[in-house]
Amino acid sequence: MTKIEVMTNQIKLAPLFNPEEGKAVVSPLGNETGYWAGAPTVLFDEKDETFYLYYRLRNPRGHGENERGFEVRIASSKDGENFTDVWSLHKKQLNSSSIERSSLVKVKDDLYRLYISYVDPADNRWRIDVVEAETPASFDVEKRQKVLTASDREGVEGVKDPYIMKHEEMYYMYFVYAEGLKGAEENGMHGTGDVHNTGLAVAPTGLAVSSDGLNFEWKHTVLPVSEAGWDQYQSRVTTIIPFEGTYTVLWDGSVGVEQNYEEKVALAVTADLKTFAKINVEGPVLETNLKKAVRYVDAIIHDGHIWYYYEYTRADGAHELRLCKVGL
């Protein structure tokens, strides 16, 4: 056995959920393919005993300023199931063609951060910025500052979908980055403002670290795409769950550009948040009964359960944001 095989055989993984048993907490704006509500990140604020949920709304192309990922929102809830919107951001406020998954983090009392993933209007590449506020309802994107862009590393065509963890006074940021395929023309990658939908780049997960959560140093790739197989196009970390002395990692995989919007969930493990081992190399562990997407999972441990929030493809083709709780 290899060291990785020994590692994965000896650890205990966090219990997973049944996507079909989830409850819809945010519905899309339409009932057909191209309408989405999803890309969640969630936190439970112990100070005011409130859940805060960030999510993204998407409409199909052809809706002008309200197409693609046109708006993101933060909602609050006392029970984690019934949410009321308290903040929103339209893509036109960033002069962007789309906003995607972002990471909502509480740093300390009266200090929250939102790490925003959006298409940079300057070069049509995905980038990550951060904005601070005293409450999740008071973010002012005019005060945002750069965290990571494609130009920070040679050969990178975009960075998006950040997931932030704080561990031993250090911030760990996991993010998807677009790595152009050999021979791909740069102009073809960025004409639509979404390199991930061109088939000209793959999307592994990178790691950057920071002592203050503002100035990050790009380290290395923690979850590469495979050379062949179901995850050869994308391997995107979406949540990390501390469990039984190690960490259970959920990530989205896809075989090619045809699954760019219909990724599925697999598992990995890490003991140090720096070195990851994939468990599901043959195929995903979570998908819908119709073999459609379960993706962008985020999870928190609360009240003796793991609360899983995730994006789910319905039978009508629209995506809704669901919650499924699993007892520990």
Automatic annotation (TrEMBL):
Domain of life of the organism in this record?
Bacteria
Question: Cross-referenced InterPro entries, in alphabetical order?
Answer: Glyco_hydro_beta-prop_sf
GO MF annotations, alphabetized: hydrolase activity
Keyword Hydrolase in annotation: yes
| Keywords from the UniProt entry | Hydrolase
Q: Which SUPFAM superfamilies match?
A: Arabinanase/levansucrase/invertase
Q: What is this protein called?
A: GH43/DUF377 family glycosyl hydrolase
- Species of origin reads Sutcliffiella tianshenii
